[in-house]
Amino acid sequence: MKSIVSAILLTALSRVSAAPASKTTTAIGENPIVFDGRIPPLFRSEKFDSYDTSPYNAEYVLGQEPWSKVIHFPNVEDSLFDVPLNGKSLTVTINGKSIFAPGGNPQTGFRRSELLPGPNSGNDITTNGVTTHHFSLRTDNTRPLNYSHEYQPVFIETQDYSSHVWQIKIGTPFGEEWPLEDAKTIRLYSSSTSNGPYELFRTPFTTDEWHNFAIETDWVNNKISAYYSSGLSPLEQLFPRINNDASGKGQFHIGMLKLPTGPVGIDVTKEGYQSKRPNEGITYGGIFIEDTSAGSVTLQPSV
Ligand SMILES: *[C@@H]1O[C@H](CO)[C@@H](O)[C@H](O)[C@H]1NC(C)=O
After folding, report:
1. With contact defined as beta carbons under 8 Å apart, do 69 and 49 qualify?
2. What's the whole-number average pLDDT of the chain?
3. CA 180 – ligand 1 centroid, Å
4. In the UniProt record, does the keyword Zinc-finger occur (predicted)?
5. Atom 5 in ligand 1: residue holding the nearest Cα
6. Is the pLDDT of residue 138 over 60?
7. Which residue, 92, 244, 231, is CA-closest to 165?
8. Tens digit of each residue's pLDDT (9 = 90 or more) over 155-208
9. Which end of the chain has the least Cβ crowding within 10 Å, N or C?
């Protein structure tokens, strides 16, 4: 039975390989885009406050101020995948009012402002088959981070909120003391500290340039692969598909989540130290999710 299947596969593959295009140079739009969070040039920040006009969730994850106060449009060059539509970059900020209170229960240990794709309830088109989450990020030099703290700027939180499918972290992990050059680093982590490698990739969070990522999740076979570039260079694959638990499905968070500092063992959601008036931000661009079930990830806006 197996050999029949592979014979069929081989025939199919040889037909594919006769096509001139290489499998990894798909232009944006050739794969179905299951969520487009890129911001058109005339978009006003008030549009983030309403479900009718925002591609993102209008209510979560936010403190006491609406998105129109939390998001700023910085004057920087377009990120890799914003180039085709002259899309707007957006800076997601936190300040002293960025205290999320789910069910009226304030998370005083955290400062949070995180965008979630509108259609992403936790088990939906963005967590089906094989999907690839694209985003670019850069420092906001007018609202610098405090690298003594841990930040979780981008991650997929499992549907039951108990863990992550993958996670980006910047800064000093809670409970540790790191020199600045280690802390000022973007790190990609897998789903778990116990199954296979935990830290999958790191690169210095250099200022004044875009850091572009595409993280591919195979929701059926529990795999991850990742792509990266800086500036306007095409993405390059960092590692081929490896095992990673994606069974919890989940929601894509993109923005600012700042942990407190303090002794190990405290409840970080409620306790620990946060400065009184933080004014910090991270700038994003080129956010979209593509269905890459067909086998190719978009590495640049067009070929
Ligand atoms: C950065 O965070 C550390 C640890 O919480 C704190 O002691 C320090 O005052 C902060 N620095 C600034 C500039 O806020």
Report:
1. no
2. 91
3. 13
4. no
5. 261
6. yes
7. 244
8. 999 999 999 999 999 999 999 999 999 999 999 999 987 777 899 999 999 999
9. N
Q: Give the separation between CA 203 and CA 172, rounded to whole angstroms.
A: 14
pLDDT tens string 43-83 = 999 999 999 999 999 999 999 999 999 999 999 999 999 99
Give the residue whose CA is nearest to atom 13 of ligand 1: 146
Q: Which atom of ligand 1 lies nearest, measured to the CA of 146?
A: 1
CA of 96 to the centre of ligand 1 (A): 14
What is the 199 CA–ligand 1 centroid distance (Å)?
Answer: 26
**Domains observed in the chain:** 2-291 (2.60.120.1160)
- The amino acid at residue 43 is F
Nearest to 278 by CA among 104, 103, 148: 148
What are the residues facing 188 on neighbouring strands?
A: 168, 201
Q: What is the DSSP string of the chain?
A: -HHHHHHHHHHHHHHHHTSSS-TT-PPTTSS-EEEE--B-TT--GGGGG-TTT-SB-SSTT--SS-HHHHEE----PPPTTTGGGTPBPEEEEE-TT----GGG---TT-EEEEE-BTT-SSSSGGGSSEEEEEEEEEE-TTS---TTSEEEEEEEE-TTSS-EEEEEEEEPPTT----HHHHSEEEEE-S-SSSS-SEEEEEE--SSS-EEEEEEEETTTTEEEEEEEETTPPPEEEEEEEE---TT--EEEEEEEE--B--TTS-TTT-SB--SS--EEEEEEEEEEEE-TTS----SS--
* Cα 278 to middle of ligand 1, angstroms: 10
Ligand 1 pocket residues where CB is under 6 Å: 146, 148-149, 261, 273, 275
Structure tokens at 4: 């029949």
